[in-house]
Amino acid sequence: MKYPIPASEITPEELYLSRRRFIKDALTVSAASLLVSSCKAQASAQLPTASSDLTPPATKDDRDELGNSLTSYDDITGYTNYYEFSSDKSGPTELARNFSTSPWSMHVDGYVNKPQAFDIDQLQTLFDQEERIYRLRCVEAWSMVIPWIGFPLNKLLEIVEPTSDTKYVRFETLLDPQQMPGQKSQMFPWPYTEGLRLDEAMHDLTILATGLYGKFLTPQNGAPIRLVVPWKYGFKSIKSIVRIDLVSEMPTSLWMASGPNEYGFYANVNPNVDHPRWSQATERRIGQNGRIDTLIFNGYEDEVAYLYEGMDLSINF
Amino acid sequence: MKISRGQFIAGVFSFIPLGLVLINYLRNDLTANPIQAATLRTGRTAINLLILSLACTPIRNILGLTSFIKIRKTLGLFAFLYAALHFLIFIGLDFEFNLSWIVDEIRFKPFIQIGLSALVLLIPLVITSFNKMQGIMGKWWKILHRIVYLAAILVIIHYLMATKGDILQPIIYAAITFILLILRIPTLNKMEFQNESGWLKSINNFLLK
Question: What is the pTM of this model?
Answer without folding.
Answer: 0.83
